[in-house]
Design a protein that fits this description.
This protein is α+β, with helices and mostly antiparallel strands and 319 residues long. It has two domains: 8-100, 2-Layer Sandwich (Phosphorylase Kinase, domain 1), CATH 3.30.200.20; 109-316, Aminoglycoside 3'-phosphotransferase, Chain: A, domain 2, CATH 3.90.1200.10. The protein is built from nine helices and ten strands. It has helices at 8-20, 62-74, 114-126, 138-153, 161-169, 225-232, 238-250, 263-288, 294-305, and strands at residues 34-40, 43-48, 51-56, 88-90, 93-99, 102-103, 186-188, 197-199, 207-209, 216-218. The longest helix has 26 residues, at 263-288.
Length: 319
């Protein structure tokens, strides 16, 4: 069973319903609310009542996913804990179950929980990683974005592709997932953005991080890179960036110095996330046969401005 199988969503919904109502027998109608929360090639997520079921990407390693679930269980004050300690299966898709949490409201950017996000990250980064946890998958995810762009460009060249590819080539090998990450291994989220937070219990509980697919050990500055990149591209107001960075420092986050200029350690990850964002934006625009919108063009323009990075910066990225 693959992501484009029409049977995936109803089968996943049935699994969520069974977990939500473990004592209900038979196929009696259910009036509980729910629906599809996400449906992408790498994940399908459905909700039934207060239970969420996620079908992970085909090829996901169940053993590694189990280690990530165990980490979330161990850190319930940082990560939303799963409802089961190991994934179930649905064809070739591992399936995990979670309590429902209320997400960040995309229509109210002024209420974005930057301080809570930064504090949770600092707690995560200060936690000793468990034995056996694999590397965080941030650089690998960036490399997949470039591969997706290359595939989209076959037979459909685009003038924005050159700046994106040249910017990618300026990055050190570790940021392109071509070499091990530098520095001591730190517990990292691997794909931090505001869509990775929920309030649990909904709707007014404390904020928690979700999505453990990319959780692992690595360079903690990667988790600060997306807001840093948005700030550098002019997409995040300086006041919000200051709120985020200040809260991270006050919480003792180890990714950046306690004071002074954070950019020597943020520069490479922020550039990598900028290139990843631009590559995905261009791939999606090509697939839809449309022009880049204003925000997408801004990240492509940021790629065009990138000067070659001295690779001696890479060892300075520390935990």
């Amino acid at each position: 069973m693959t992501a484009d199988s029409p049977a995936l969503t109803p089968a996943l919904t049935a699994k969520a319903r069974a977990v939500a109502h473990p004592n209900r027998t038979g196929g009696a109608p259910c009036a509980c609310g729910g629906g599809v929360l996400a449906d992408r090639p790498d994940a399908t997520v459905v909700r039934h009542a207060d239970t969420v079921a996620k079908a992970h990407a085909p090829g996901t390693d169940p053993a590694e996913l189990t280690l990530r679930l165990a980490t979330a269980t161990r850190l319930p004050d940082v990560l939303l804990p799963p409802l089961a300690p190991a994934p179930a299966s649905l064809g070739d898709r591992p399936v995990t179950f979670w309590p429902y949490g209320a997400p960040v409201d995309p229509d109210d950017p002024g209420a974005a929980p930057w301080e809570a996000t930064a504090t949770l990250l600092a707690r995560l980064h200060r936690t000793a990683p468990p034995d056996g946890l694999p590397p965080m998958r941030g650089p690998a995810k960036a490399a997949r974005a470039l591969a997706r762009l290359h595939a989209a460009l076959r037979g459909a060249p685009h003038p924005a592709a050159g700046p994106v590819r040249r910017a990618w080539a300026t990055l050190p090998a570790w940021a392109r997932a071509e070499a091990p990450m530098p520095g001591p291994p730190v517990l990292c989220h691997g794909d931090l953005h505001l869509g990775q937070l929920v309030r649990h219990p909904a709707p007014h509980g404390p904020w928690r991080l979700i999505d453990v697919d990319d959780l692992g050990t690595g360079v903690p500055a990667w988790d600060l890179a997306r807001p840093a990149a948005w700030y550098a591209c002019g997409l995040l107001p300086p006041a919000e960036w200051t709120r985020f960075l200040g809260a991270y420092r006050r919480a003792g986050g180890p990714a950046v110095p306690a004071d002074g200029d954070p950019w020597p350690v943020l520069d490479v990850p922020a550039r990598a996330l900028t290139v990843q964002t631009a590559a995905l934006a261009l791939a999606k625009a090509l697939a839809a046969g449309r022009e880049l919108d204003e925000v997408e063009q801004a990240v492509v323009d940021a790629c065009a401005r990138m000067a070659p990075i001295p690779h001696q910066l890479a060892p300075e990225v520390t935990g």
